[in-house]
């Protein structure tokens, strides 16, 4: 690009303006969020200083970072626990959601019979179900996993089902004419068609499984070794250790952002060659 | 037209939808080896229904469709109005599909795929994705996919209707060249009088409500037909003949409706 830019081609004023606007936008895309974030943190700091707010009400951002490093041993253990539950729940949600979706599209009757259960599980708030789960499920990890899974699997199920049913009707006819088996149709036609839908569901489910894990920890509430970030927040709250609450909160937020980013990258990697959503248009 | 071997015989075929809509009534059609037959008619005359019956996508209500030698795997090639390509697959993977569904690996049939792509002039685009191709090129891929099994019969359902005039003429010419080379049999659904005259040696004119054959026009102009044929007096005469037959078909329907 830069080589051809050096040569003097005919570039009229409008084109120059376009190019400038494009360059400006590509810088702003990264710079603007970064500046706004820095500004927000700075004003947080100033508000605390100017109003003499004590650190047990609202700590300065610097103190939060200090706490994060000072308590890193404990917080990183907790992060690992929460992360483990989140990822396991997401994994089970992917397997369960896609598996159920495939069963649904293989048999209308199966879908009619079991779809209501999926909806009931989805619409009932997990906070309401969680206490029961912890009564019936002895293993704490299994209970946490179950809670996170209930929240996370539905978007994958409903998106994948939608995708599997969205195949082009002409392609379906074509497969029929060429004598495709049910399995061939699923593998070569329905699953690729459903991929973009599934990936959309995955991005939502990633965030939801983290929410599910955190909510479940709140409800489970037992401490000791093997407790996650949510429990650390509760515990720090009881002890009025507000900086640690913020530090744990920060870790949860970062985890959520990382999961979302990874899911988006995966989506781009799998779709950029062919799908409309990943194609950049000139003009 | 010399004597040709019979390929397909449709006799007294009826198709009724929802117990009362007569999509096709008493359709009789003999397709001979090497025929290029156009089904021409207004919307709702059952030409697509006829194609779907031949393709085995639906069953006739009554009557018979008999294939000489039976219908075997790979006997049919189909081209729809849309290119109907899988967007996630490359050109060669799309053309591979009919073979793939019969359990053949890409390596086994790479020769067939390259041959089919060469036939439609896309041998240099095997690794491209459909979105990188123009509308006309996508349609060529679709034709290559229909050719790849060297079928006994190719069904084309208004394949060029969505293309611009220039591309359509180009593809018409290329289709005739292909047909000349491969001696394939084609049933071509269209509602363009000009296209049907340019391409086919028999035009089956159909009328609507109920869908039925109203007339058959024989296009006795010799092949190969080139751009010169398109501007010749013969072509104009034949178009008038086909056009009259088509209007006849529409009027029959009008009389019926007013009666």
User: So what's the CATH class of the largest domain in chain A?
Assistant: Mainly Alpha
Number of domains of chain B: 2
Overall geometry of chain A: flat
> In angstroms, what is the radius of gyration of chain A?
25 Å
Assign the CATH topology of the largest domain in chain B: Rossmann fold
Greatest interface (CB-CB under 8 A), with counts per chain: A-B, 21 and 22 residues
N-to-C SSE series of chain A? Answer: HHHHHHHHHHH
Biggest beta-sheet profile of chain B: 6 strands, mixed
Measured between the Cα atoms of the first and last residue of chain B, the distance is 39 Å
| Top CATH class of the largest domain in chain B | Alpha Beta
Helix content of chain A: over 70%
Can you name the CATH architecture of the largest domain in chain A?
A: Orthogonal Bundle
Helix content of chain B: 25-40%
Physical arrangement of strands within the biggest beta sheet of chain B: 5-6-7-3-8-9
Average pLDDT of chain B: 90
CATH H-tier superfamily of the largest domain in chain B:
P-loop containing nucleotide triphosphate hydrolases
Quick one: biggest sheet of chain A?
Answer: none
Q: Which CATH-level-2 architecture of the largest domain in chain B?
A: 3-Layer(aba) Sandwich
What does this structure look like?
The complex is a heterodimer of chains A (283) and B (259). With 283 residues, chain A is mostly helical. Helices cover 81% and strands 0% of the residues of chain A. In chain A, helix 6 packs across helix 7. The two termini of chain A are 18 Å apart. By secondary structure, chain B is an alpha/beta fold. Chain B is built from eight helices and nine strands. Chain B has a six-stranded mixed beta sheet with strand order 5-6-7-3-8-9, with helices on both faces. In chain B, strands 2-1-4 form a three-stranded antiparallel beta sheet, with helices on one face. In chain B, helix 2 (91-100) packs across helix 3, helix 2 runs parallel beside helix 4 (135-147) and helix 3 (106-119) crosses helix 4. The longest helix of chain B is centred in the last third of the chain and has 26 residues, at 233-258. The radius of gyration of chain B is 19 Å and the shape is globular. The A-B interface holds A 168, 170-171, 173-180, 184, 188-189, 192, 195, 273-276, 279 and B 52, 55-57, 73, 76, 78, 80, 82, 84, 86-89, 97-98, 100-102, 129-131.
């Amino acid at each position: 690009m830069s080589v051809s830019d050096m040569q003097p081609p005919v570039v009229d004023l409008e084109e120059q303006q376009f190019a400038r606007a494009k360059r400006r936008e590509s810088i702003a895309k990264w710079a603007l969020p970064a500046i706004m974030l820095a500004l927000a943190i700075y004003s947080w700091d100033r508000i605390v200083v100017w109003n003499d707010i004590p650190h047990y009400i609202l700590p300065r951002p610097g103190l939060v970072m200090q706490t994060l490093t000072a308590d890193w041993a404990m917080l990183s253990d907790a992060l690992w626990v929460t992360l483990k539950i989140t990822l396991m729940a997401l994994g089970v949600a992917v397997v369960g959601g896609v598996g159920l979706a495939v069963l649904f599209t293989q048999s209308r009757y199966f879908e009619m019979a079991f779809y209501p259960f999926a909806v009931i599980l989805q619409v009932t708030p997990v906070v309401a179900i969680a206490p029961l789960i912890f009564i019936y499920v002895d293993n704490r990890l299994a209970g946490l996993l179950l809670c996170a899974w209930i929240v996370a699997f539905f978007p994958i199920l409903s998106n994948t089902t939608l995708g599997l049913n969205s195949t082009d009707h002409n392609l379906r006819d074509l497969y029929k004419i060429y004598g495709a088996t049910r399995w061939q149709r699923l593998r070569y036609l329905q699953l690729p068609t459903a991929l973009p839908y599934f990936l959309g569901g995955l991005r939502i489910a990633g965030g939801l499984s983290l929410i599910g894990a955190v909510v479940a920890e709140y409800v489970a509430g037992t401490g000791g070794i093997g407790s996650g970030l949510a429990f650390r927040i509760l515990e720090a709250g009881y002890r009025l250790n507000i900086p640690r609450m913020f530090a744990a909160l920060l870790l949860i937020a970062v985890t959520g952002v990382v999961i979302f980013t990874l899911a988006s990258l995966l989506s781009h990697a799998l779709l950029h060659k062919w799908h409309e959503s990943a194609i950049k248009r000139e003009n | 037209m010399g004597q040709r071997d019979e390929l397909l015989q449709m006799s007294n075929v009826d198709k009724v939808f929802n117990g009362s809509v007569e999509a096709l009534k008493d359709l009789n059609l003999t397709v001979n080896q090497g025929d290029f037959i156009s089904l021409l008619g207004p919307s709702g005359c059952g030409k697509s229904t006829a194609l779907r019956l031949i393709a085995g996508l639906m069953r006739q209500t009554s009557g018979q469709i008999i294939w000489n030698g039976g219908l075997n795997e790979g006997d049919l090639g189909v081209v729809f109005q849309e290119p109907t390509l899988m967007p996630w697959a490359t050109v060669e993977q799309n053309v591979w599909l009919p073979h793939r569904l019969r359990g053949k690996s890409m390596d086994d049939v790479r020769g067939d795929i390259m041959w089919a792509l060469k036939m439609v002039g896309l041998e240099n685009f095997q690794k491209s994705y459909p979105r990188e191709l123009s509308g006309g090129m996508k349609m060529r891929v679709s034709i290559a996919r229909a050719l790849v099994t060297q079928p006994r019969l190719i069904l084309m359902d208004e394949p060029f209707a969505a293309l611009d005039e220039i591309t359509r003429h180009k593809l018409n010419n290329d289709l005739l060249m292909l047909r000349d080379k491969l001696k394939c049999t084609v049933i071509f659904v269209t509602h363009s009088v000009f296209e049907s005259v340019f391409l086919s040696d028999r035009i089956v004119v159909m009328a609507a409500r109920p869908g039925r054959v109203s007339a058959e026009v024989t296009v006795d102009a010799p092949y190969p037909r080139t751009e010169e044929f398109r501007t010749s007096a013969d072509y104009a005469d034949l178009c008038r003949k086909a056009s009259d037959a088509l209007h006849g078909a529409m009027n029959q329907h009008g009389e019926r409706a007013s009666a």
